[in-house]
Amino acid sequence: xxxxxxxxxxxxxxxxxxxxxxxxxxxxxxxxxxxxxxxxxxxxxxxxxxxxxxxxxxxxxxxxxxxxxxxxxxxxxxxxxxxxxxxxxxxxxxxxxxxxxxxxx
Amino acid sequence: xxxxxxxxxxxxxxxxxxxxxxxxxxxxxxxxxxxxxxxxxxxxxxxxxxxxxxxxxxxxxxxxxxxxxxxxxxxxxxxxxxxxxxxxxxxxxxxxxxxxxxxxxxxxxxxxxxxxxx
Lengths: 105, 118
Prior knowledge:
The complex is a heterodimer of chains A (105) and B (118). Helices cover 0% and strands 54% of the residues of chain A. Chain A is built from no helices and eleven strands. Chain A has strands at 4-6, 9-13, 18-23, 31-36, 43-48, 54-57, 60-65, 70-75, 84-90, 94-95, 99-104. Chain A is globular and about 40 Å long. Chain A starts with a strand and ends with a strand. Chain B has 118 residues and is an all-beta fold. In chain B, strands 2, 4, 5, 6, 9, 10 and 11 form a seven-stranded mixed β-sheet that branches. In chain B, strands 1-3-8-7 form a four-stranded antiparallel β-sheet, with no helix packed on it. Helix content of chain B is 0%, strand content 49%. In chain B, a hairpin with a 5-residue loop joins β5 (45-51) and β6. The A-B interface holds A 2, 29-30, 32, 39-42, 44, 47, 49, 87, 89, 91-98, 100 and B 34, 36, 41-46, 49, 91, 93, 95, 97, 103-107, 109-112, 114.
């Protein structure tokens, strides 16, 4: 039931782009994305409610394909502050497997 | 915005003792709260759903008698780890959502409690 994310980990240089994918085995009606820094609580990034919907937050955007039961998070021109672990969340309380992102100067 | 306070932020205890972690919604009433456990470099795993005025709903594999959850009021849920052992050492996080909101709304998280059992 836990959504599977890919990749598990990624290392970027500042300014590079990354895509994080989230795949569910069950039908999706919404997807939330959170970022967690080490030792801290997850912080909400965005929510997608409709199939095919894309939303953006600064240089971070996401898409949601309910037919494929997938969502993707796009990070463009990454900054050092983007480092952390990214989680998709379905049924608003079930966390995905997580993707560790490290941005290097 | 909504704020959830979790206490203590860290605790060290001896094996065999019990530890209580509190989760409070400060500016809203939470009929439902969620308790998660997170091991290093792993995802948040839902342990149980705490419902005000009724018994908690535990996820498969979570021992009810070991992880006691009490949701006695609309602003407080507690998790008690009974007879703690070193394998219970973990990061425990609670979350809540404001009542009356639909399934699309965002969870508000506590800051987490790091438990170390010696």
